[in-house]
Amino acid sequence: MQEFLTYSIYGTAFFLMLLGLYAVLMKKNLVKIVIGLTVLDSGLNLLFVAVGYISGGTAPIFSPAVVGKHVIMTDPVPQALVLTAIVIGFGVTAVALALVVRLYRKHNTTNIDEIKNLKW
Amino acid sequence: MVITDPVYFIALPLLTAFLLPLFGKIYKPLIGIIPGLVFAFLAYISFDLYLNLVPGKPIIIQMAGWAPPWGINLVFSEFSGLIVTLITFLAFLVWVYSYNFKKVGFDNSKKYFTLLMLMVAGSIGVVLTGDIFNMFVFLEITAIYSYGLTAFYKGRDSAEAAFKYLLLGSLSSVFILLAILLLYKQVGTLNMADIAVKAQSIDPKMKSIIAILFFVGLGIEAEMFPMNGWVPDAYSQAPGPVAASFAGMLAKSGIYALIRVFYTVLEVKGVFDLLLIMGLLTIIFAEFSAMRQKHLRRMLAYSSIGQMGLIMVAFSFNTKAGIFAGLFLMFNHAIIKTLLFLSSGFLTYSTKQKKIRDLDGFGKIMPFTSLMFGLGAFAIVGLPPFSGFWGKLNMLVATADSNLYFVIALILLVAVVEIVYYFKVIGRLYFRQQHKDVEVHNPTWNAILAMSILAIVIIGVGIYPDLITDYLTKATNELFDKAGYIHSVLPNLSLN
Amino acid sequence: MNSLVLLILIIAGGALLSYFGHKINKILGNITVFAVALIIPIYWFTQVDFTETVSFTVSGFHMELGYNMYGKLFSMIVMILSPLALIYAIGYMKDQKKLATFYFSFLFSILGMTGILMSRDFVSLFIFWEIMTWSSYLLVIFLGKDVQKTGIKYMVFSAIGAYAMLMAIVIIYKNTGSMMLSDYFGSFAGFTLQTKLLTGILLLLGFAVKSAVMPLHVWAPGAYSNTPMAYTSVFSGALSKMGIYGLGFVVVNLFAQANLEIVGYVLAWMGAITAVLATFSAVFQHDAKKLLAYSSIAQLGYIVTGIGIGTELSIMAGLYLAVLHAAFKGVLFMVVGAVERQAGTTDMNVVSGLARKMPFTFFTALIAIIALAGIPPLGGFVGKWMLYESLINNSNFLMVIMIFLSSTAAFLYCFKFLFGLFLGQQEPEFDHVKEASPVMIIPMLLLSVFLLVTGAYPGIVFKYVAEGMTNLGFHDVNWQMSVLTNAWGDSVNVQHVYLSVVVVFVAFLIFITWRGYKHSTKISTKDISSSGEMIKPEDNMTYAMDFYKPFQRVLQPILKWKINKYYEDFGKGLEALFDFMRRIYTGNGQTYAVYVIIFLAILLIFSKSIFGY
Amino acid sequence: MKKVVVIGSLGVIVYYLLSAFVAIPFGADIIKGVKEFYLQKSPDDLKVANVVTSIVVNFRGFDTLGEVTVLFLASTALGSILYHRRSQHSGLNPQRTSVEASAIVQTGAKIIFPFTVILGAYIFIHGHLTPGGGFQGGAIIATGFLLMLISYRKFFIKHNALTWIEAIAGSTFVILGLFGLIYAKNHDFLENFLPAGKLNDLLSGGIIGIIYIAVGFKVGAEITGILDTLLTVKETGLDPEEN
């Protein structure tokens, strides 16, 4: 069971990351590339949360129900980090989409292969 | 003490950036003036703090009342302080240069100055912070700043350049995050000094994977060879002062992060050999590409990559001489490349195509700007009596010190190439007949002031390099003394 | 204040003053230049204390300035020739623009040369070397002719030379821990053979570029002929001697004493080959500037041969020739400059017969040519005599033949130069030509007087040469004021030769002039009989046209072999390579991302071998 | 060709990364690090029930300042990327790119909108007690605005108001932090200088709650601004590609 959980959660996270990376590297459409970036970020965030999990742990909140009792809590640090990572990912995605809009206006296409005025 | 606290380096620009739109609503010119005041103040406190720094006793600032490793801390040491001082100084000059850039068609100054403030805060944050995740956050701040300002001009291919940078920057952040995640799970802490203590017990295979992830992630920011495709595009499409800030501040914080991670945080055997090889490849590809460029700004961008490669090579020796030379090169590159980008801003602005061959005879119609460009070119290729020479000499001495004669030969051969393409431009500027259809945009007084200050620094350090060598030596000792860093951040830790 | 530092400051200050003087006003600028040109040599000859030293530590490197006798000898060349050229320039550059830049660079190159000769450590040597290089580069491209080709070629070769030197310097620093020249010389014997050869040959390469030795000479013809002539006289006369200065101490102090004479011997051979090839190239030039440029290379070839052999007599010959070469090449380039300025061209196919129009210029040119060709009464003869003798003493007979061949062939171009420009019939379009202004004539005359004097008293040069050679380890150099002796004890008093030749020459001149006035009539070049063929007015019938056509035909195979072409092909190949290499920056953002991924994958695959866990 | 290379490289990367992650068994509590300290100090000293919040706002509050900056930066950068002069050209008003939604959607949006905003506000006000916080609450508020923006073509957000909210909320964060330099015990930036209160009270945790409220406002305003900018791209009447 433990083995299965390890591989399934990590596997899902890695699958998402792989999917995102594949889209970033192979898809020609700029919007799809941006989607790939967000999928990549999601996979990474999932990995963060998964790594912070501790078997049998509860959310790290000292609500009245748990105060005073001995409970195992999950690692709060990756959760705090993932919050930051999500926000940063959001910011980057917003800027990326704005750039896609600009690129589409200028080149009238979203094919990345056709957008290479700057080279060498 | 309260008035000169390193936390102001980050808090003040952020506060100003948040409030800048409001100032604009009160009185329009405040948008231009307030950033200048803030930059001047930052430059003042950085000089004040740096000059009063007691050797071996860096200023450690803890956040929110928690001592490291529990809270985030800022470390203003001889090394980080030096780079912060450089950044604030350059930021102030960039402000002076772009203060009334509006006159020559620079609109939207509110957003420009807001972004500039944030960028200064970000790159200072990267340098000062003692926490690895915090470093990542500040790196992202500088990265988003670059995406935004690279695409600032609408008429050029700037969005394309910004998108390329964004693509690579996102990959870089993914790798850095993965590395931080793995590292956290191994040592359970994010403080750099604490990691440095505990990293010795990490499984070497795991450590090498972490090192590789950091290497690739930070290598993108530090313009390392196979991952620097974004650099020429971004540098050539961004507005002049922004390109200057890329070269002067952004690239500096990128390379700072790289060397901080590998010198202090993670001690991995072999990474320096890798850095040497990649640095050499960076130099070769960049300078050879620069040789054949037709656009002035692209040429400068490639040259900038080459300089970064040289800095990487210098730091890869892992000796005191190497670090000293690397710091000297960093200083030179920051000052001189800023001057080159600032002057090329006006040069290319007056041409239609922004090509090198349009610059024929500009020495006559834009004498000051051309003179500044020429001076910068002389300095960057390492001709005495300008500051570039001392950096190069120290670099070569450090190389010889590590018995790498073939590297000396290679660096010097590449330097010949560098001389050729810079002198081609100088030849065109001064000794060619000018084209007819140029509309001349001579620099405004504040731009002249900014460039003159840089030129004075270049000549001053060139004639008397001991102006800065003391500080560089101190910084070298600080960076090389890993145990000292750990001890000053975590004084209660017993090292055994 | 230390007199050496003050000297440097005076020259630098003079450069700045002339710059700003010319920025304000031309007359003010010229006055400043004139004053500076007087002050520098006066200060040098009267105030500079040659025993004084000054040392300082910059950026961790100990640096020391101070003259030795060897440097003083070369300094003398600089200090005599450069001010004269500066004064000449006032007249020569009168109508040019951008004079501020010109004089600034001119004085900075003097600063560079002065500094080189007083440097006792490698750092200051290199700094001044580079200052000299970039200031002379600015002058090479000053007129805007062939900027990309000549200028870049000059800069590339200079940079290769300078960086070879820099590489040697850092390796020396690595091995000795000191930048002082003396420490290097002192510990040279203790180095491994590899280090000896590496440092020595790299230094040699650096100096050889400036003295235009054979495969590295391709920058010289273009650079010498495209520079304003006022500077070329210094360029060829003094600046190229900096290379000779360096070769001298490297070959003699290092290789000869470390039993590696073979290096000097190779160098001597290269000098000899340079002399022969450059002489042949010079013979067939029709532009007087190019002719002199090649002639300079050839003359430097003799000097390099002399230095390379490394015996007492040969070095003496080399140094003596170096001094004389500075004087006569200085004059000749000034002469060409005067002709260029007065007649508008230096193409010997166009201009001719200027002797009557420019008598003083002709007179100085005549003296200098006689000195150059090594015809007995003047100094060149003495130098060549000593060179032959030293070569014969060393049994280098093949080299003697080559030098002899070259100096015989040198007569051809000397003759062509003199006749092409000054003798022959004067074309009508040069009727308006006048003598150059006194500002230009006086420096030329002063140098000619020097040449005349050294003809009778070569000892005044020998005195300083012998002094200088003490620093190369030759302490009791035997010399006499006017007597030449050979190894077999024969001696000849040059004063007698001098007097007799001068008397004959003057008598002949009077005779010729008398006859010339009595019997000659003036006719146009077009006024000749031509076997029924009509001479068209546009036909070029000047004297120097196709001067040595038969020789040219004979020497065709040698002349066809142009080393320049190989360099150019190499450069083109490099450019193609660069173009190919930069194609990795495809412009497609996605490709860059793929590079990142591939790079990461490669690092991961090789992580075991890189990180060695 | 490219496909093969890319898939091959990805395979190599995933293989090595997985081999690294397998060394970290899922759910195992293998490391002793700073988290123990946080789990202990948060309820005891700071009186903050939600440990993630105390880490985000207090222990690693500097990160959060950076985060807020990233969002602010993104919205400013977005503005500068998509900026075009409105006033100087024909008096065209900015156009929404979306189409007018149907009446059902519009009515539904109108009903849901206030509740969404209130939910968001609840979440960031209770950030230190329950899961969630400023970022989450701000994002929920922005969702409400997004609903309105895509339902109504004529729903325009006053940028002036957004600017004020952003500026005041952002500067509150920094100024509260700077107050710490003066009033707090250790004179540190972002240090709590207010009474901590009692665990699990609404008014507990000192400045942590206040900062999270400010963050909530700022994030809400910024994300709304970003969405508005992205949705209000002008298509006609202008030449945005001027130099």
Question: What is the general shape of chain B?
Answer: globular
**Proportion of strand residues of chain B:** under 5%
Share of helix of chain B, binned: over 70%
Assembly form of the protein: heterotetramer
Q: Which spans of chain A have pLDDT < 50 for at least 5 consecutive residues?
A: none
Name the chain pair with the biggest interface and residue counts per chain: B-C, 71 and 63 residues
- How big a fraction of the residues of chain A is strand? under 5%
Secondary-structure arrangement, i.e. CATH architecture of chain A? Orthogonal Bundle
Instruction: Sketch the topology of chain B as an H/E string, one letter per element.
Output: HHEEHHHHHHHHHHHHHHHHHH
Give the helix proportion of chain A (percent range): 55-70%
Q: Average pLDDT of chain A, to the nearest integer?
A: 86
Based on secondary structure, the structural category of chain A is: mainly alpha
What is the first-to-last residue Cα distance of chain B? 34 Å
Calculate the mean pLDDT score of chain B and round it: 87
* Gyration radius of chain B, in Å: 22 Å
Give structural notes.
The complex is a heterotetramer of chains A (120), B (496), C (613) and D (243). With 120 residues, chain A is mainly α. Chain A has a single domain, classed as Helix Hairpins (Orthogonal Bundle). Chain A is built from 3 helices and no strands. Chain A has helices at residues 2-26, 30-52, 76-107. The model of chain A has no long low-confidence stretch (mean pLDDT 86). The longest helix of chain B has 30 residues, at 158-187. The two termini of chain B are 34 Å apart. In chain B, 73% of the residues are buried. With 613 residues, chain C is mainly α. Among the domains of chain C are: 260-518, no CATH class; 562-611. In chain C, the strands form 2 sheets. A two-stranded antiparallel ribbon of chain C has the order 1-2. In chain C, helix 9 crosses helix 12 (288-309), helix 13 (312-343) runs antiparallel to helix 14 (359-373) and helix 14 runs parallel beside helix 17. The termini of chain C are far apart. Chain D is mostly helical and 243 residues long. Chain D has 8 helices and no strands. The chains are: A mainly alpha (120), B mainly alpha (496), C mainly alpha (613), D mainly alpha (243). At the B-C interface, helix 6, helix 8, helix 9, helix 11 and helix 16 of B face helix 5, helix 6, helix 22, helix 23 and helix 24 of C.
